Amino acid sequence: MTSMTRRMMLASATAMTAAPLWAQSTTEDSSTEGAAEGISMRFSGDIVLGNPDAEVTVVEYASFTCPHCRRFHEGPYKQLEAEYIDTGKIKFVYREVFFDPQGLWAAMLARCAGQDRYMMIADMIYAQQSEWPVRDDPGRTAANLKKMGLVAGMDGETVDACFADRPFAKSLVATYQENATADNINSTPSFVINGRTYGNMNYAELSGIIDDALGS
After folding, report:
1. Which CA distances in Å does 8 have to 19, 60, 70, 173, 186?
2. pLDDT single digits (tens) 42-84
3. What is the distance between the alpha carbons of residues 176 and 96, in angstroms, rounded to a whole number?
4. Could you tell me which residues come within 8 angstroms of residue 114 by beta carbon, excluding any fewer than 6 positions away?
5. How many alpha carbons fall within 13 Å on the CB side of residue 210?
6. pLDDT bracket for residue 212 (50, 70, 90)
7. pTM value?
8. How is 162-174 classified by DSSP, letter by letter?
């Protein structure tokens, strides 16, 4: 993508910070205290896997509505997980990119499930990528995402409260914008390996760069 496209990505993300349409109250008398309390129970920081003290850090930037990201997670990511993450060779950081409201809402669902269930729900979101996002029907999108949350052990009230948390949505978008600008992210999936940004690549290329960084 061009730098203009990236600016458009960041600008469009700013418009996503309202709660999903289906979750908005018909009145504006919701408790500020309740919203603040809700966000304190959720996390908008990095999703970190592997060895937090590893000498090599691999950051993936991905969108839940990106087909290339889905293909990476269905294939190369599984190899990366087995060979480098689970073995403690690297610190792996997963960061969401928001092309559209649907991707933001999916990220909110995964995060509201808790860090221990995040990747499980992420796998479900990617696996059903052709089914759950309904571009012109937020209600159906909500129902589809909610089903995944219920399957993962969340209760309906928790999912509804998650989607309605505007401060939480704003914090995710702000974090995305800050990180994407700092790392010069222009497309997804993108990878930052020990501070250097790379575009999408096959697993052989990715593992080769990691091995060089490991000195192996």
Report:
1. 21, 20, 22, 14, 10
2. 788 899 999 999 999 999 999 999 999 999 999 999 999 999 9
3. 7
4. none
5. 25
6. very high
7. 0.85
8. HHT-HHHHHHHHH
